[in-house]
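Hello K.,

You asked for the raw outputs rather than the summary table, so here they are, unedited. I folded two proteins back to back in the same session to keep the settings identical. This is the first:
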Amino acid sequence: MSQQFIHSTNQKIQQANNTDNKNQYLTYHLGDELYGIDILSIKEIIEYDDVTIVPMTPSYIRGVINLRGNVVPVADLPSLFEHTPIAITRRTCIVILEVHSDDGKYEVGMMVDSVTEVIDINPDDIDPPPSFGTRVHVSCIKGMGKTDKGFVILLDPGLFLSLDELYKLADSLERAQKKEAARADAPVSGNEGSLVDKAQEMGTGASA
């Protein structure tokens, strides 16, 4: 995936967030299926980089990445539903999502095989989700978006709130980052290594 393509797509994401455009979706591939996710839930797209494995966490948590000083957990959705994990290629990307909960908001990364484009889908063109036949469970699907090129499976960003282990890890990381920043009385970016170590400790302790 070229840096130019990622940069231009991130610009579209920023524009959509600035205008609060609720009808735009980022499309991406998981295997041979085309998915879409509400662009307002996306912070940015980044190229795949090395993921630090967190011991004793579910298989759908590939690990954590350090994103400008913030330690972000990364999910592999096919693994969650017992499908083949995403194979890393030069087109693999991580979509950084901002997920909101009653306790606040946090960032999670979602691995995708490749990012396609940003498209408009009107609410009237969204059908109910199918009962079977996708790599992602129906409970995680918002609906089926109709486009000129066919259907797009629209993912519900709220699914990340239902992934207890991912949510707990993300919440714990956020708290740890705030404590580290307060303790050092400096920007979080100055504590990158210790936060990754903290993520590994959390993973080990969570299932001990």
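The second followed immediately with the same parameters:
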Amino acid sequence: MNTRIRIKQMLWLFSMILFITYSCSDEYLDYPFNDIEKFDLSDAEGNTLKATVTSDSILVYWPPFQPVPESIVPSISVSENAKVSPASGTEVAFSEETVYTVTAQDGSTRTYTLKPITKRPATTLEFHIGTTYSMGGDAGNQLFELRGEFIDTLSAKITLIDSITGQRFPVDRKYFTSFGITRLHVSGLPYDNEAGIVAGRWYRLEFASDFYNVTFPAYYINPSTRSTAFSFSATIDQTEVTAGGQLTISYSLSGESAPYFEGNFMDAGITVLDPNGNYIESSAKAKLISDSGTRLTYQLPTTVTADYKIAGVNINNSRFIIQSGLNPDLSTPNSLSTLWPWPEINVLE
């Protein structure tokens, strides 16, 4: 009986020894996986781009209208226990010359080629005709307008080229007042601008971006005719005139556009009162004799006699025009008015 129990014990012990020995000598198989599971990077604006990984390619769709980088720093995830070279976080060329190798735990490898996709919609651009383009610090002075489709808003550069000298004048982007993928306005360029652009000249307009370049024919830049660009002031010099004598008016034009304009004065209308204060010659004319640039001299009509009074001088038919040699077709506003002296001008013998 004891012998039988002892044999059973020996058999059990021997079985356990064999089991333990087999278990300790067993080796796990190495992982054979060598996939790129995730490939992320940031675009020019800091947004995350997620690449599409195929059997042997890493497709990165770069956003349109962003400058394409020469290199990138991607974040890469691969299969468990696998390694990738170049490693995640390594700066690499953003081109098809960059190839990644993923090595599985069992030593098998797989290569992936980086394939940037940077196709962009075609840009169209035209110079908008029909607006009087002018300089001046007021935002209402539009220097030019371009219209089109898919305008590159990030890398666009504007240069004006003097049509005679060929000198180039880059336009600062701070004057891009309306800038989108379908329209570009440049406005409010002051006379003392950094580039040295001046009014009264012809310029060709060059548009250049990372993806599209075009030069438009020359166009004319006018001085501003807005009311904020110049101011006219005038005063009647006398409080007394002689019958058949002369009336003088001092005047000035100020503002940033003043150097570009000159007076174009006509005969003046005068309002006359008789000794009783009654209007008798509401449409009398005083003939312009001279204009010194700061003073107008008018010859009074013979109908204005002694003891009459001049109550108003109307110079509404006069205006300032652009100086000779500049754009003769420029339409300038009639900024002059009726001058009402107070007290009235007495007419003496």
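Residues 227 and 335 are 8 Å apart (CA to CA).

Happy to rerun anything if the numbers look odd on your end.

Regards,
P.
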